[in-house]
Amino acid sequence: MTAKQRKVQNAGWYRFNIGALECTTIWDGYIHHGYEGLFPNADPAELARLKQEYRLPKGEFFPMDLNPVVVNTGDRLILIDAGMGRTSQLFGDTMGHTVDNMRASGIEPDEIDMVLMTHLHPDHSFGLIHPDGTAVYRNADLYVTKADWEEWTDEASLKRNDFRAPWTEGTLAAVAPYRDRVKLFDPGDTILPVVSTMSGAGHSLGQCAYIFESEGEKVVFTGDVAHHAVFDPIHPEWFFHNDYDSDPQMGADAKAAIFARVVDENIRYHGYHFPYPGIGDLERVADGTYRFHGDAVTPRLGYSVD
Ligand SMILES: [Zn+2]
After folding, report:
1. Alpha-carbon distance 18 to 274, whole Å?
2. Distance, CA 122 to ligand 1 centroid (Å)?
């Protein structure tokens, strides 16, 4: 007898609760990302040691997941970041699954009331539109920090000879159908009674983290404050990619500040680029550095030992 191999994985969505909030990670795909240049001020021997100790992919590349999240507050459906979508293969062809996975999770894009952007880089913003340029989230307001809006919708960048030209061109197209419902704010502002914000500026000038609180439990959606679940917690002082960080030192300082607050206030941590589904807990160890413990994916929902 022969048995046909299916060659497909289960749908990329995963649900978890924070108090009365129902959160759903919606996997957009992954970037086939090189280690080369990833942490430009890292000691290469230390990076190699950690690759071995944590059994990370041994070669030159690793998969960097993209994990947008939908939060159902009871009266609103809020999407945090929109994935890479299918308008561009600037970062490869391994992304663009957000809409399919959202539908598989039981959520229709038309039901989304608000989209909160951590920042406007391609792998977060390009998924706001379909390949024909129309809005994916036709009924949603779009929340962006003023600083990120200024940095990444600046038409002067279109004339540059670096990555900022195509990134800005794509972001201008992605936000175009939302222009009459863009809500600009400053990091630190409160979006809703259950949603506060905190600056994570550095990776982009307006990078923002969103803290949701319900029934005494908190979670922070950090976007690109950190990119790797092993390297960043152990070495918060490492910069991410000098080319792509608007201000690498500012980004490292913001990362350290957010890690400290997360531990001090017992906040659950979500890393957009951490391994799917990106939710877990940070621990501070004796030397003052951190470790990330990602939740194990399970079909159980809402189990509590309390
Ligand atoms: Zn990113």
Report:
1. 19
2. 8
